[in-house]
Inverse folding.
């Protein structure tokens, strides 16, 4: 059992579990050598002793390691530690398409097109390497905040020339996205991925899957027999050109589908063009019930080899003419001349065709200016789209090329249209609500991950307890505000100063006034008579000593004052008969008995 904090192979420290699957569990881990977060996929313990599953798990690593594409999760490492087999992959900080659809429902048309273009670009790259994903579903596709899509889990992907592809019992993948031929027990081909992409596109457009049932068998039967629901009936605003993509990609008969993911990608690219505004509903070329010809993609032979049809044609003519004219040298010479002319003509034809269909590799234009990249691509024989696509990048400066579509390094036909992805610079960071969180942890994330400056300030707040000493009570900017790299963020923690014992320490009124001014307290002073405390000294405070000071709070004190005195006439001298003589009248001081404090 893998637990938080455990270190795999003395290198990858487990942070938390981020996913559990039927074959493996996935963890967020920290690579202590390369100082980065990674996704660690570990084969489930109950399967580690099963040689078949171990081989399958290792096959995932081998197939995935051959893929390098911006829309495919990168694999870093593979290994085994005390019987635990693992794969280390790029950690994608985002959500799955399934989570996105559950939260939002149907996506906008532009969002769907952008996602599908990225997916078909990535899958086409895998197909170029003779690898089929075979488990395309929204749960296996991550989308980041900047819209970048990443295909994960080539866990049941295999090289196309593997003999295991033809095993009729290898029905894999989630049944909701499973093509009919696989549900029928036939082998996998690139067209299986095309079908799954079509079902996924339907879900993104409508917010739901097209075929539902109480069990896997019922759903599989619907995949084989029932037509795809018309998406234009669900949402009339979806154009026919988009529905035609769904019709073609989800055909029951693989021969009616796109030949490969690149063809589907090109169809999606032009789906909203004005020329396709009044497009008619797509009609299948082959019967939909003809499911016998599922083919495994084969490597394309070297184009330099002579075309087989030309070879057969020449051989046929040559054999027939020689057999029919064995007795005539002239006829034989004539027939050979004819054959030579045919071969020469075919050679010229295919030479012209070859130049027209010449395939060239897309050059590296990453980090070049848009103008320089356009010039380089056009010189190489490509057509560059006028409008670039804007993407965030923390590695490429604004105004420079991040990537191309089709991807750099891919071999495509001369004249292919290339879309440039232009960097808009580092993405703005949306502030989260950090109130109540430990300021040390938040400070580390903001500084190390988002490259922000952080300052910590104290703020007096009411009703703060001692256990909140390290908790954030306020922040600036507020949650939801977008900031750029290098911005200074202020985190406020409680002012944990405490009220002193003013009575016991003999504070004066002046002391109290200075204290109230320092902490911006609303001070109320009352004078109370005391016969035991010197005047001007605190004899009572409203906040007990040791309680936390809250800025702006009300605070009341009683200050001692001396008893008031009044003058009273002294008793007249009985021997003094002169009532008018007051010169000897003396006075005595007596306390005012209205309010005293002992």
């Amino acid at each position: 059992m893998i637990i938080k904090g455990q270190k795999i192979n003395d290198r990858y420290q487990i942070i938390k579990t981020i996913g559990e699957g039927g074959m493996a569990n996935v963890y967020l881990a920290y690579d202590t050598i390369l100082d980065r977060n990674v996704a660690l996929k570990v084969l489930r313990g109950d399967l580690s002793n099963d040689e078949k599953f171990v081989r399958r798990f290792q096959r995932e690593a081998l197939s995935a390691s051959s893929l390098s594409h911006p829309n495919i999760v990168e694999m870093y490492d593979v290994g085994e530690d005390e019987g635990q087999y693992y794969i280390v992959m790029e950690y994608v900080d985002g959500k799955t398409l399934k989570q996105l659809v559950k939260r939002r429902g149907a996506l906008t048309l532009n969002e769907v097109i952008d996602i599908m273009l990225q997916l078909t670009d990535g899958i086409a790259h895998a197909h170029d390497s003779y690898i089929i994903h075979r488990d395309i579903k929204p749960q296996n596709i991550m989308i980041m905040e900047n819209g970048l899509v990443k295909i994960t889990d080539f866990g049941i992907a295999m090289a196309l020339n593997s003999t295991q592809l033809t095993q009729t019992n290898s029905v894999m993948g989630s049944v909701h996205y499973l093509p009919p031929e696989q549900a029928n027990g036939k082998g996998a081909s690139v067209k299986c991925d095309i079908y799954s992409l079509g079902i996924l596109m339907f879900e993104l457009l409508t917010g739901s899957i097209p075929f539902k049932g109480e069990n896997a068998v019922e759903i599989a039967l619907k995949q084989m027999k029932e037509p795809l629901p018309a998406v234009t009936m669900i949402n009339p605003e979806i154009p026919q050109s988009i529905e035609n993509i769904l019709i073609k990609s989800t055909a029951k008969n693989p021969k009616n589908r796109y030949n490969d993911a690149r063809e589907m990608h090109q169809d999606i690219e032009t789906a909203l063009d004005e020329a396709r505004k009044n497009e008619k509903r797509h009609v299948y070329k082959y019967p939909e019930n003809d499911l016998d010809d599922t083919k495994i993609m084969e490597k394309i032979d070297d184009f330099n080899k002579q075309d087989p049809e030309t070879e057969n044609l020449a051989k046929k003519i040559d054999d027939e003419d020689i057999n029919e004219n064995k007795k005539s040298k002239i006829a034989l010479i004539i027939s050979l001349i004819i054959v030579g002319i045919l071969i020469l003509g075919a050679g010229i034809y295919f030479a012209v065709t070859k130049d027209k269909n010449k395939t060239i590799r897309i050059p590296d234009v990453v980090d070049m200016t848009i103008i320089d990249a356009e010039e380089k691509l056009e010189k190489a024989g490509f057509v560059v789209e006028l409008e670039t696509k804007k993407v965030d990048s923390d590695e490429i400066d604004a105004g420079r090329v991040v990537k191309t579509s089709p991807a750099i390094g891919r071999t495509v036909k001369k004249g292919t249209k290339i879309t440039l992805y232009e960097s808009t610079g580092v993405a703005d960071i949306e502030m989260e609500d950090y109130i109540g969180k430990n300021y040390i942890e938040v400070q580390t994330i903001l500084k190390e991950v988002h490259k922000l400056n952080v300052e910590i300030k104290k703020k007096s707040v009411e009703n703060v307890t001692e256990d909140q000493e390290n908790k954030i009570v306020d922040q600036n900017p507020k949650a939801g505000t977008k900031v750029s790299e290098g911005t200074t963020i202020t985190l406020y923690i409680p002012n944990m100063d405490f009220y002193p014992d003013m009575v016991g320490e003999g504070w004066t009124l002046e002391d109290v006034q200075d204290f109230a001014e320092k902490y911006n307290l609303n001070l109320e002073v009352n004078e109370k008579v005391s016969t035991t405390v010197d005047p001007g000294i605190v004899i009572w405070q409203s906040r007990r000593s040791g309680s936390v000071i809250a800025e702006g709070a009300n605070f009341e004190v009683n200050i001692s004052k001396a008893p008031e005195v009044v003058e009273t006439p002294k008793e007249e001298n009985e021997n003094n008969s002169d009532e008018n003589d007051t010169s000897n009248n003396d006075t005595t001081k007596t306390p005012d008995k209205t309010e005293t404090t002992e």
Notes: Confidence is low (pLDDT under 50) at residues 156-173, 292-328, 582-598. The chain is about 30% helix and 20% strand.
